[in-house]
Every structure is written in C-alpha cells, then in structure tokens.
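lol so apparently i was supposed to do this last week
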Amino acid sequence: MKYDVIIIGAGPGGIFSAYELTRLQPQLKIALFEAGHELSRRKCPIDGQKIKSCVGCDTCSIMSGFGGAGAFSDGKYNITNDFGGTLFEYIGKTQALELMRYVDEINVAYGGEGTRLYSTAGSRFKKQCMQNDLHLLDASVRHLGTDINYIVLENLYAYLKDRVTFFFDTPVVSVEAGDQGYRVICDTAFYECDRCIISVGRSGSKWMEKVCTELAIPTSSNRVDIGVRVELPAEIFSHLTDELYESKIVYRTQKYEDKVRTFCMNPRGAVVNENTNGIITVNGHSYEDPEKQTQNTNFALLVSKHFSEPFKDSNGYGESIARLSNMLGGGVIVQRFGDLIRGQRSTHKRIAESFVTPTLNATPGDLSLVLPKRILDGIIEMLYALDKVAPGTANDDTLLYGVEVKFYNMEVEVDEHLKTKYDGIYVIGDGSGITHSLSHASASGVYVARQIAGENGV
Ligand SMILES: Cc1cc2nc3c(=O)[nH]c(=O)nc-3n(C[C@H](O)[C@H](O)[C@H](O)COP(=O)(O)OP(=O)(O)OC[C@H]3O[C@@H](n4cnc5c(N)ncnc54)[C@H](O)[C@@H]3O)c2cc1C
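anyway here it is w/ flavin-adenine dinucleotide bound
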C-alpha cells in the first residue's frame, strides 16, 4: 500500500501534522500508525480499589493511543520559548510562538472555548520571587484540564477520521529507505510512502534509538531531570495559582549552584503514577471541572543532571534511581517533609495523622534512601526558598512523592526543516528530543506539515 505521507505516532505531534496536512492539502493520501488504542478504548486498569498498581499492559493506556502521552494530562499548553523544548533553535523564536498560538486557536475551536489563558506578564510575583532568589519564567498557559483536553481530542479525531487512514494497535517495527521513497514495516504488512513523519514521543524513545542506528541518523544525549512531586494544601499556593495557574520557578542552590525548578503545577489536582518502560514514577494532573478538584495542589521539583564524557546513558541513570524507589516501595514512595528532615521514614500511621491527605496511594518510606544526596539537598533548599513566597511550603506535613523523573529522548540530528539526512524523513515532537511539551510537540507537527505542503507548492 502506498501513501503520500505516513505519520508514526498519534500524540499531539502526529495529530497536529495530520490536521495541518489535511487542511492545506486535502488530496494527499495520509496514513497514521499508532501503537496504542483509539481514544475511546484507552483505559488504565488502576482503579485504586481492586487494582492499585501497574499490571504492565501490552500497551500503556496512559502513554499510548490517540492523544499520546498527553491524552489524560492536565492539558496545560504553555506558550513560551523559555521551557518545554528548544524548537526555537531550529525555526526561530517568533515562528515558534506563532505556531504555539495557532495550536491554541485550534484547541479553543475544537472544544477548549471557555477555558482560561493565564499569563505571567506584569505579574507582581516576578518581583517577589526575585527578592527571594527565585526566578519566575515568562509564559502564557492555556489550561484545558484533563476533562476538556479529552473533549478536544475527541473532536479532532472526529475531524480526522474521514481524512486520514488510522491504524491503531499497530506498532511500526522499522523504517527502511529505498530509491523511490520509504517503507514502513509493521508486524504483518509493510506500507510505502514518499514522506514519513516520525512522532513517537517518550514511550517510543528506545524504538527511535533503534531506527536512528539502523538508518545511521546521528543522535546525542546527556540530560535527565530527577526529583520529587510535592503535595500540599491548595491554599498555600493559591495566591500564585489563582493568578498564574502554573508558575515555573527556578532556583540556584547555594550549596552546589545546581538549578532546581518547579514543573507541572496542578492546582487542586491529584498525584498519579506514570509508567515508563515498566518503571513506576510519579506525575500529576488536575481537572477544570470543580466537582473533580481536590483540596491539594501538587507540583514537581526537579534537578537537571547533565553528564559529560565518558558517561552517555543519562536515561539509564534516571531509570536506576526510579528502580530503587520501586524496589523499596513496590512503586512510588511518599514521605512527609518533617520526617525527611528528622531522618526518619514515614509510616502509614504518620501519614494518616498528617493534616495533608495524599491523593495517591503510595508507600510511606524514606526518600533519602533513594535520591542521591546532592539532588535531595537541592530539593530541600528549594522548599525552604519557596516557603518565603508561599509560607507553609516547608511545613512538616508537606508530602513528597518519589521519584519523579523527566526522561529526555536523545536528540535526533535534523535540519531547520526538522528533516533528517533523508530527504523525506522528518522527526518531530518529544521523540526528536527537541520538544518536551504539548505545545512545542504540536507546533512541530504544524511546522513539518507546512514544510511538506510548501514542497508541494502550497
Ligand atoms: C501524565 C502526564 C501529564 C502531562 N502533562 C502535561 C501538561 O500538562 N503540559 C505539557 O505541556 N505536557 C504534559 N505532558 C507531556 C506531554 O504529554 C508530551 O510532551 C506530549 O504528549 C508529546 O507529544 P508527542 O506527540 O511528541 O509524543 P506522545 O504524546 O508521547 O505520542 C507519541 C505516540 O507515538 C506512539 N508510538 C510510539 N512508538 C511507536 C511505534 N513504534 N509505532 C507506532 N506508534 C508509536 C505512542 O503510542 C504515542 O501514542 C504530560 C505527560 C504525562 C505522561
């Protein structure tokens, strides 16, 4: 079977490249291959009652399927070049922002109307943060919320399903380059195309590595972010979250001069498990619907680890630390900040007596047995720094879940068109190592679609 364009991966990168291609060139024959299920069949079996921890499904419904890793996410589309990826290094800052705004318009048109766009512009917190050695990064953020994000995906699928041939539950095994185009090989069949857009996200990182080796496409990698998810009563951060929703704050530690940052803030949200290649880490989300909101706010505190020669396996390092927490706690570990400071493990009794009720059923334990000292010291220092702009952050009952790891895909060598050394193979989204967020991944999808349309004279 021959297609003009084959897209691999139905996350935001794949969806937005399909959307833009069908809009600009409706005559193109496009196929989209996705390892996971269609949206309506995506369901994680963990219900907190009968099934409390990961059972290792063949394809993880949290990470795979229509909507990609973002389908059940909080749907925070950050419009900024300050974080979320380095797309601007390839396509320029102005164009990157324009594309993120375009993605926002589509999300609003497909179900996100009525959701709020928050902004740090002119915020009084910037000064307050600076006075306490904290740095608030600039961004606008559209918060769709897990519920509306799902509706937007449903509507996008309704638009795309008659214009694109979808192959769900069909992982692509390999991609081959031929004289007349490319061959996309699945378990039971192969398909040919003139152009191939690869958008396999974080869950496809190992596969991407394999394909790059087979096609001799150069890659590089040296970063992983490791830390904890903090959960505290929503009131403590409400002055920040009510105005900004999400605040990305960076702190440089006095002890080691390491950078620690807040990441993925979920006001009145819930802490959740995340499964990456069978390793259970922690994440968080929140709902726009007030009925589904909780009493707590959660956010990650992460320390970036960059490695130099000869070590190359930064993700392996992160995985080993996450494995340690899985070994000790059978999954994610939770500890009260007061227990951590006193050098004692948390117990079910201490957690039950705490004034903060955990939203994730994690194992009480001791994070100092899991996290390297340097990382833990940085996190503790930042909690005390945050306590100055949000008093109560460093309370004894503040809960720390570990570990949270942000794995970065190795960076695939692409040019300013996001094209590899092969004329028709583009690599976009988180799978390229260039983006790490919904808005950047989506923008990269629109960008390559326009490149391809441009080559075809549009
Ligand atoms: C719980 C959670 C919450 C998050 N919250 C936010 C947030 O609020 N804001 C934000 O900006 N980011 C958030 N993120 C990150 C965000 O989801 C990702 O940055 C984004 O989804 C990346 O999009 P992508 O299209 O590049 O990749 P993905 O969304 O990862 O999609 C890739 C798709 O490719 C498929 N695939 C992989 N390999 C193959 C193969 N060989 N063959 C066929 N298909 C394959 C996968 O099944 C997957 O569906 C969150 C992530 C998680 C897990």
